[in-house]
Amino acid sequence: MADTTRPVKERITLLKQVLKADRNHTEALHALGCLYMAQNTIFSRDLARRRLERVLQLDAENVRYHESYATLLRRQGFYYNSMRHFKKILEMDADHADAACEVGEYLLQDMLKYIDARRFDGGGSMRSFGLESRDEAADFFEYALRKDPYCRRAYYRLGFLNLESGRPENLVRLSKLLLERYPGDPDGLLFLGLGYQEMGEMERADRAYREALDWMGERGRQVMESPELIGLIAGREERPGLGLSNGRDVSGEAVFTSGLARFWRVRDPLFLTRFNERRMAHYGRVAYANLRFSRPDEGVVGRETDMGKVWIRYGRYLGRERTIEPYREVWAYENFRIAFYSYDSFHWWIEFLKDDQWVTGRYGRGDVLSSGFARRERYVDPYADRKYRLPTQVGVFKAPDNRVEVDLSWALPKARLGYLKLYDTYQMDLQDGVFLFDDANDPVVRQVRRREVLRDVWQDTLKSCYLLDRASVTLEGGVFRLAVEVRDKEKKTIGIFRDTLDVEPFGEVRLGLSSIILATRVIESEDGDGRSRLQVIPNPVRTYTRSEPLYLYFEVYNLAQDAFGQTRYRVEYRIGMPRLRRLPLRLDRTARARLGLEEERWTVSVATDYTGGQSDESLHLDVALSDLKPGLQLLTLVVTDQNTGLRAGREALFRIVK
Q1: How far apart are CA 106 and CA 121, in angstroms?
Q2: In sequence order, which residues have a C-beta less than 8 Å from that of residue 386 and are 6 or more positions away?
Q3: Quick one: which of 557, 576, 554 has its CA closest to 621?
């Protein structure tokens, strides 16, 4: 009977022969019932039930027989009766930790059924029933751990209850206890990472996830980031780069693997950290989906269910509501809802997704699970409430070997910083970084540094509000994604700047003009040459009062020299209200009034002729703003090489305040 090497049908035949000789052979009846149950069909489960009920009549005190019968009832969908039998097992054997877990599992599912449900008549909440079931479930899982400190299932489910109750610190504690019993347990490490992540402890979460993936090995890692799961997140335009077809096929593993790194990099909410928070969130979602939505008796993993797929794509709902008879569950997100239906409160399918902005119309299951579905992933930036826009000025200048130097300056709002002022210095703990990615989103520059001391350097009215910091990088030509980030470790604030940088080398022949640096001051010394003899204090905020001068710094390249080696060129600049069509954003009437955008146009226009002896020249100008009206202003600078007639121009926006 215990020979598992034989086929199931042959074993069933042998057991029938035993029962033919002795119809009351309890071990044969039990073994036959278990084999029928393992076949997992409606008919075979019915046969199993007859055998197991018969064996309980013959030996009603056998705990093992009761356990098999209770398991069969659960698989048949008789969850309440199954739970009653597991309780009976606990009365017979108080040390039976698995039976305590089964009772706890029933109560846990009861909690999920009632905690967000309405009453049968459609009115009132059933939350009190759900909370009662939650507390009872926790008692049974804790009881199981007292009886068996090595009961993995009790750790997992008790941790899940704490997570659902908004107590991630208890999930962390339980995961650590589990890992003391089972060092390197991948699920325990995943849940540890999930707990830390919910607590906002991202570095600890990252360590836990990395260790979990190491213990899983390559096969486990491929499951966590399989084409099926990534396909739930990827947008239609991203699928070719991942080698994904319109279905779930992958054109090549190498294509998918290389594309995966770029896929996650685009979604990284903070480049200053060595880990990718969005990627970690994916691991946590997969782990949670497997924990909550799996159906072990049917061999169905949670990530393969409709609810699991929605969870991986959109994360935790903002609100959840259930109805009973009929069974329906609705998950509410910021501006859409997803409804599920079930015939038994255990098997769930997507019914529809409805956009809250639509008066009528909705998407069905086929739409939501299709590869081309318009509403792709949802991810809430964990740093969103700490981030602020970092005023930044970008300057592009000529560098040796036909390269380009990118000078960056940014204004740090003092109100966002934690610092100690000592005389004219500010003692703080800052981390800043400059990051550049090419058009394939591969990293080109990662420049991270620690800043502990900054000084007052602005000589204007903004000095009381901001500190200034700077950095520079040298590049070949190309189109880059630029990111500047500054994090204050005391106040936990994060300054962010993002832009696209189109860099074209200036060459050695064509007339070139650098970026215009809007400055608060330019200090000239007698030593050095070109830019090295000037101290330019940039103004990343680009805001001036009418009583302050506006300083401009720029460089002109590849000026033609006449027969006497002399250059002749004209510099013209105009300042006035920008035309609305020239602005990158469309502004309503209120915004236009606030920015002082009127019908009046150019109000300042100046032209100056220069001569020199160098093909490359560095220039700075100071512009009086007293005659200009407050509001947004556009500066247009044009340089004309009078030896060749060639022209080059740049523009810059700034604002005048009263």
Answers
A1: 24
A2: 492, 493, 494
A3: 554
Give residue-wise pLDDT tens across range 251-307: 556 678 778 889 999 999 999 999 999 999 999 999 999 989 998 888 899 999 999
Please identify which residue in the block is written with the tokens 């890992």: 179
Q: Which residues contact 576 (CB under 8 A, 6 or more apart)?
A: 600, 601, 602, 603, 604, 633, 634
Contact predicate 487/494, CB 8 Å: yes
What contacts 545, CB < 8 A, 6 or more positions away?
A: 460, 461, 625, 656, 657, 658
Q: Which of 470, 450, 467, 451 is nearest to 408 (CA)?
A: 470
Phi, psi of 518 (to 5 degrees): -80, 120
- CA gap 47, 32 in Å, rounded: 9
Which position has the token pair 């880990």? 275
d(CA 259, CA 231) in angstroms, rounded, equals 12
- Provide the pairing of β-strand 512-513 with 443-455: unpaired
> What span, in angstroms and rounded, lies between the C-alpha atoms of 305 and 110?
20
Residue whose structure tokens are 């003009």:
513
Residues 473 and 486: their CA atoms lie apart, in Å, by 17
| Strands 534-538 vs 419-422: parallel, antiparallel or unpaired | unpaired
Q: For 500-551, how does the pLDDT look when each residue is reduced to its tens digit (9 = 90+)?
A: 999 999 988 899 999 999 999 998 876 666 677 788 999 999 999 988 889 9
Helix residue ranges per DSSP H, 200-244:
202-224, 227-233, 239-242
pLDDT tens readout for residues 314-355: 999 999 998 887 889 999 999 899 999 998 888 999 999 998
Q: How high is the mean pLDDT of the chain?
A: 89
